[in-house]
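Q: Hi! First time asking for a complex rather than a single chain. Here are the components, and I think there are three in total. Is that enough to go on?
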Amino acid sequence: MSAEDSTLLDIKGLCVSFRTPRGELFALRGVDLRVNAGEILGLVGESGSGKSVTLRAITRLLRANARISGHIVWRGQDLTVLSEAELSTIRGRQIATIFQEPMTALNPVMTIGQQIDESLNLLRRFDARGRRKRALELMGLVGIASAERRLHSYPFEFSGGMRQRAMIAIALASEPVLLLADEPTTALDVTIQDQILKLLGGLVDDLGLTLVIVTHDLGVVAETCENVCVMYAGRVVERGPVAEVFSNPRHAYTHALLRSVPGSGRARELLAYIPGQPPRLDSMPSGCAFAPRCGYCEDRCLSESPAAVAVSPDHVAACFAAGRLAEVREPQ
Amino acid sequence: MTDDVAGVKEAVGAPSQTAWRAVGFVRSIHRLPASLIAGGVITALLMLAALAPSLLAPYDPLTFDYMALLQPPSFKHPFGTDQFGRDMLSRTIWAATIDAQIAVLATLGPLLAGSAIGLLVGYYGGVFDIVFGRLVDLVVTFPFLVLVIAIEAVLGPGLVNMYIAVGVVGWVFYARLMRVEVRVLRDLDYVAAARVLGYGDLRILSRHILPNAARPVFVYWMTDMALAILLGSSLGYLGLGAQPPTAEWGVIISDAKNYISQAWWLTVFPGVAIVIAGIGFSLIGDGLAEFLDVKR
Amino acid sequence: MNLKKPRTVAASPNTERSGPILSTVGLTKRFRGRRSILDVMTGHGHSWMTAVDGVNLEVHRRETLGIVGESGCGKSTLARCLVRLTVPDAGIIRFEGEDVLALTGVARRAYNQRVQMVFQDPYGSLNPRMRIGNALAEALTVHAIIAREDVSGRVNELLDLVHLPAGSAERYPHELSGGQRQRVGIARALAVAPAVLIADEPVSALDVSVQAQIINLFLELQTRLGLSLVFITHDLRLVRHIAHRTAVMYLGRIVEIGPTEDLFRAPRHPYTQSLVKAAPQLLIRRRSERSRQAAVQGELPSPFAPPPGCAFHPRCPIAVERCKIETPALSTGSSGGDAWQAACHLA
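A: Yes, that's all I need. Here is the structure of the assembled complex.
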């Protein structure tokens, strides 16, 4: 099994900046990550980390004032050099996206059936009857009951969970290879979130999809994802298999984050919190962006930005304290 | 919220220390929208003409000069003279007092009364809101000018009656605007917090709601002043506003209507003055809206 | 009630007065739904939803009571009733034994001093045109808690209490971060020296790394000031960490209430069980071991059309006929004593 063969998406040195009245703000400052076929990858980070921007940069769904540099290689093709017309054959077809707020991501004046149909049309394979049949199949696949009737419903008639399922159905209609999910369950209730995540996991298994989930919830990553990229201030600070990264974090941020989440210690004990807050885009510290808040900060962290180092075959961390962190073993 | 939006939004609200703030203030003057500056200049000129016309006007507007009847614009009389030999430039400048007065007096009453009513209706809602809603529907059904003229027809012509007529109808627009703002603010957490902290309604309305609701109303007031000048001039032209011999731009134009074909300068210059004054207030309104929005 | 009560000093664990500090009996609040034009024309009445349905609750001194639930469970409405932001339709609220809803005038104002609230949205919970210091000073002066000349000193003390630098008093809300704003909200609530603090999703809108700071602040303040804390959240990990007792709400009712650790380790009510199962844990499972089965099927019913009998029965894996007809009341089980109750016929 060659790792190169199964790499679907290879992002190298991705930088995204926005031209604003206050100057050029860099949301991504050199992102490297890889997505392999059939995997479930979690992109986790807080505000300012750039996780959503990364996702949108792949299919170039950014604002007009955004500038992209770097390489996004999709199945051997660099997406950043494609024209808009060329990219639109990939976006929505091979790479589909589902968003956080189904109410704003779905067209409120079109029925669900019409929106699935629109997506099916991209395949140019079915006639009207075939499309309707396929739409019903898709709705069944995502667990929408009474599909016949629901085809003619408008988004506002659905609950939050149903809307999210509808959005997944629309995304699946074009038979994508890669599904990008931008905080798909953040706006949903816990039990519904569980349903949607299990649904997505099931679809990955059954349809051979590849899934990238952007989230801020470490628990979601732990339960759903195989691999994880931890992002902070526009960079990937650590990536690797979830089991390894979460049990043996080698970036000071990942380490601190895992310890600060409730449930990691005894009840009603003070949490090991991270002081300060994530840096603003317009006041990015020089050197390592996490240094001002870091408990393992050395002198060089303030002036030098650490390069990504492989601490094991699949596990990469960009931290000068990676070695020291290996010694630290928290009782789980 | 996507990271880019959150990030940029965070960037815009940068933390400041005292030194930073002083620098920021100076920089911010340069950053004032062009419309605000332009409008400010025009309005300042208008106010100067209104408050100190004798400083600007070259001649006494009331002096008849039988040697210079209906003179076209020249160096001696840049705006020409009218059928009595009065210098048009001076007349126009002196008339600015009346028009500026109209701009303020015709809008101040509706602003204050409308804001107060809108504030109360928006905050308390209930039956007041229903009654208010029907009242608004009633007023906006009719064209504004028609209503004002109708009221003046009952009261008689004249500036004071014009103010009354505008007041009776105009407050509705301010009240409507204020009510909308208050309705939104009323549901915000900091108002709820004020109530939980046991603050009285008066305090909540005056310190927590009004300062935050006032902006759009204030901006509208600027635009309304422009409209008031137009209204005043129109009514003045129709003989329902300022009464001759009071110099008001609309009245001046009305006086000159018999001479339009012979002496174009009699109507054009006052007309231009109306337009420029209106533009001045409009620009301030736009500029304020833009400026205050950025701060928000 | 005395308006000029001095700030409560942290009580030592031995000074206990009996009885809960805050309690409700049969608390109910209904809201009217909207009617479309069609409904008006066809003569349909308004639809009603019961946001809080006959809730009996007790908050003990110096404890943290967690209230969890999903959308439409009524936890926020319950919170608003407790601080009298919303007037309930039925039921009694008692504070230190006194009937709160019957209070008027001065006594009612005094109640506001004793029970305070911290809100969810740090961006909407502060008046954008008021400096922080003024907002805090206002709370102090309105209730005439201290002499005028002591106000600025007290403001600094409050800022210190929530670990904000003294210079923050001069700042406007938009100059602070979300976490800092939340601290101000807490300081403002504490300014009037309440005995009970009700926190409605106080950390949900904050970054994960900042949440821990605020949670620690709550823990610290509770010990230091002897507060009773009602902590409302949808985050089970959080409530498990911070609450002594937890109440689980579903469609306006408390379905289970008991000591937090017991409740989470062995929940008695099927809904609590689903909730615990559904909540994402930091437990890593290999892909092959992962369950494809969701914790609970079906959607949350609309509060305007709650299912008859037990509201959870359409989604409940163990529902029987009785559940469709009879609404279960909170009852203690064979174990767990008086403190642990679940509203289930089969628990």
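A: Residues 7 and 36 of chain A are 4 Å apart (CA to CA). Let me know if you'd like any chain examined more closely.
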